[in-house]
Write a structure and sequence with these properties.
The protein has 52 residues and is mainly alpha-helical. It has 1 helix and no strands. The protein is rod-shaped.
Length: 52
């Protein structure tokens, strides 16, 4: 027997996952802007991302 679809739950779950992804992307952009601002002002050495 096929399961009964729960459209409301599935939609809320998609929206919740999308909101998490958007928040993570916004945090990464904020951190990159902050790092660039510090590098431009000369307070912090540029990070070497290729070292890992």
């Amino acid at each position: 027997m096929a399961r009964k679809p729960n459209y409301d739950f599935e939609r809320r779950e998609r929206e919740r996952l999308k909101a998490i992804k958007v928040a993570e992307k916004a945090e990464a952009k904020r951190a990159a802007r902050e790092r660039a601002k510090q590098e431009q002002s000369g307070t912090v050495e540029p990070a070497d991302d290729k070292a890992s």
